[in-house]
Amino acid sequence: MASRRRFTLLALAGALAGALLAPMAHAQDKFIVLASTTSTEQSGLFKHLLPQFTKASGTEVRVVAVGTGQALDMARRGDADALFVHDQPAEEKFVAEGFGLPRRAVMYNDFVLIGPKSDPAGVRGNDIAAALKRLGTTGGAFVSRGDKSGTHAAELRQWKLAGIDLAAAKPAGYKECGCGMGQALNIAASTNAYVLSDRGTWLNFKNRADLGIVVEGDKQLFNQYGVIVVNPARHPHVKKDLAQAFSDWVVSRDGQAAIAAYKIGGEQLFFPNAGQ
After folding, report:
1. What's the whole-number average pLDDT of the chain?
2. 32, 182, 244, 268 - which has most CB atoms within 10 Å?
3. d(Cα 126, Cα 132) in Å, to the nearest integer?
4. How far is C-alpha 133 from the chain's CA centre?
5. Does pTM surpass 0.70?
6. What is the DSSP letter of 251?
7. What's the rounded mean pLDDT across residues 125-149?
8. Distances 5 to 10, 13, 15, 17, 208 between C-alpha atoms, Å
9. CA-to-CA distance for 182 and 4, rounded, in angstroms?
10. Which CATH number belongs to the domain containing residue 80 in this structure?
11. pLDDT over 50 at 259, yes or no
């Protein structure tokens, strides 16, 4: 009799433990993997933005911050639930190939050309093509990310507009680091070189040494960000509903207001433009 009672108590204890652990296990599963750019991470935006989404939804966002090209490759393999990137032609190709659900515009800022404050190459102004053409012809030191990121793709477009074919011959001072934006800025700071950066990462960058903005304001330097949910038809394990909830939130009134509220030294880093 005693042994039967003990068995019953153990069974009840096991059932109770299972009931208590089930919600915990479910809660641990309530996360998405977001493949994104180094700029959203290194600018500090995600530290400001994502806790607000988690508070509103109960869903954790685990960010893998890499270049946009690498982020898209991750999603093609099914290693991410959603994308938050900034290379619109590549994003549209990703969707057209069936890897993603429709892309949505989220926010924008701009690229800036960073260089020594003394501007030894004499490129200062608001014409990025003219600046790069001068750097190319004078052999000025330039650090390229060279990592297939959104910033690298933008840089390549600007060299093309400047009439310089990098595939044929790279300018004398052109060096590729195959690295993220922060590291590229560090290299430029230590070598007194020029580098193309998104404004957000630059504003949050501390190791500036003698660097400053030398070219800004050119419409060619516009930098658009988009969000894409990975297509579950390609990868059934994708957490489509949770990823869609994140996409819906960042383009919602609350998400857009949170993006606009992120500032460094009173300067707004990103400008929401969902639905435009």
Report:
1. 91
2. 32
3. 11
4. 28
5. yes
6. T
7. 96
8. 9, 12, 15, 18, 72
9. 66
10. 3.40.190.10
11. yes
